[in-house]
Write a structure and sequence with these properties.
The protein contains one helix and seven strands. It is an alpha+beta fold and about 100 residues long. The protein has two domains: about 50 residues, no CATH class; about 30 residues, no CATH class. The strands form two sheets. The chain has a four-stranded antiparallel β-sheet, with no helix packed on it. A three-stranded antiparallel β-sheet has the order 1-2-3, with no helix packed on it. The N terminus is likely disordered.
Length: about 100
């Protein structure tokens, strides 16, 4: 899994004065208590770390009724087309754009 790389630096500031947080080439300026702001940044970074696995997962899941045919290729037999329809799996191939069971 790729690692999230994020570093934080901040300019010291008395409470209520504007602060600047830098993340690489991005600077954020805010007029907040720097301790509260830093805690919020840490919380958002942690939330992003927790969600990272969802963001990098490939593929799409589509929920179709059983009466809608689903077609895919068997990775072990790439020349064979598989159709799932009404809970039944059939191997076959396409002839003139139509599925023909083997």
């Amino acid at each position: 899994m790729p690692q999230l790389i994020m570093s934080q630096t901040s300019e010291p500031s008395a409470s209520g004065e504007p602060i600047t947080l830098s993340f690489g080439s991005v600077e954020l300026r805010a007029e907040r208590d720097p301790r509260v702001f830093a805690a919020n940044v840490r919380a958002s970074q942690e939330a992003l770390r927790r969600a990272q696995g969802v963001f990098v997962r490939s593929g799409v899941e589509l929920d179709f009724p059983a009466s809608v045919p689903k077609f895919f290729i068997d990775e072990r037999k790439p020349a064979v087309l598989i159709r799932e329809l009404d809970g039944k799996r059939e191997e076959g191939h396409l002839v003139d754009g139509q599925f023909v069971a083997a």
